[in-house]
Amino acid sequence: MDTKDLRAFLRVYEEKSVNKAAKQLFITPQGLSRVIHNLETDLDTELFTRTPGGMLPTDSGVYLYENSRTLLQELDALETGIRRFRNRGSRMEIGFSCGVLNVFPLQKLEAYKKRCPAMTIQWEEASNQDVLDKVLKRELDVGFVIGQVGSRELWVKELFRIQLSVLVYEGHPLYGRDSLSVQDLQGEPLISLNEKFSCYHSLVERCRDFGFAPDIVVKTMEGQLIYRFCKEKIGLGIVVDIHRDEIKQDGLRMIGLSDSLPWKISIVVREERKEEKGILELVRGIV
Questions:
Q1: Per-residue pLDDT tens for 34-77?
Q2: Is residue 260 very low, low, confident or very high in pLDDT (cuts 50, 70, 90)?
């Protein structure tokens, strides 16, 4: 069974039409019909019932569709993985956890490119767990993640850490405080980044340590919106002190949360790859 034939079958199944699928595959309807017929012959079963309303899958067709999609995805992943092995030494794929790029010195990546002009760099931003998973699965060469990393398969080097802070608007009872505890947040409406960000999970975990669930009334993907909503007195903002000089804070105070879990950034690579020349050079240039 040819994987190209399987992909053609999937397109016919999804379009319910040989003509429509043939246009997308850039072949003739007659040629595509032969592909489906040959596939049915090889499997000794009918995959579609031909009707005036379109190609209706038989039970065998449904079964093949549901299982061939997974098979083809796995084959694609295998091909991608093999390609990565082949490209080692000439291509570096890097993942940044959401939030890291707010503090990561991208000029160090530019300096790395100049030191290693033969290396092509591709990077993406994803959730913390996605970056960790992709490094473990060898889908990324290097990850920059936030928080604790517990896998023994990963080599981890901490780069940066800072405590969380609370953004308090003028007129709030906590506005004049020099320092705050997690306990002070109990019963307060809070504004936070959402579940894609490590600081959200750190906040929830630490509040539970103090015996309460935080009242998060706004979850956002945009750090700047925390400042805006806090200024509008919707609630107290949970932030990392990395925007102090970039955002006007008239009527707001940023107060350190003394007993919060630290917001820390680490570089992670698979343990067996930490001595590879390209990765070692990247780490040396950043640490």
A1: 999 999 999 999 999 988 888 999 999 999 998 888 888 888 77
A2: confident
Closest CA to 168 of 178, 158, 160, 154: 178
Q: CA of 267: how far to CAs of 81, 91, 111, 123, 163, in Å?
A: 21, 18, 17, 14, 19
pTM higher than 0.70: no
Burial of 187 (0-12, 13-18, 19+ CB in 10 A): exposed
* CA nearest to 167, candidates 251, 231, 254, 246: 254
Strands in the chain per DSSP E = 48-51, 54-57, 91-97, 120-126, 142-146, 154-162, 164-169, 189-193, 215-220, 236-240, 252-256, 263-270
CB of 249 closer than 8 Å to CB of 226: no
* Residue 86 region by backbone torsions, left for phi larger than 0, else alpha for psi between -120 and 50, else beta: alpha
Residue 271, CB-side half-sphere exposure with 13 Å CA sphere: 6
Q: Characterize the bridge pairing of strands 154-162 and 236-240.
A: unpaired
Q: Name the 3-class secondary structure at 73.
A: helix
Question: Do residues 233 and 165 touch, judged by C-beta distance below 8 A?
Answer: no
Q: Dump pLDDT digits (tens) for 88-135.
A: 667 889 999 887 887 787 888 888 888 888 888 888 999 888 999 999
Question: Alpha carbon of 25 to those of 6, 55, 274: distances in Å?
Answer: 12, 17, 43
pLDDT per residue as tens digits for the range 220-246:
988 889 999 999 999 999 998 655 444
DSSP state letter for 261: P
Contacts of 241 (CB under 8 A, 6+ apart): 162, 163, 165, 254, 256
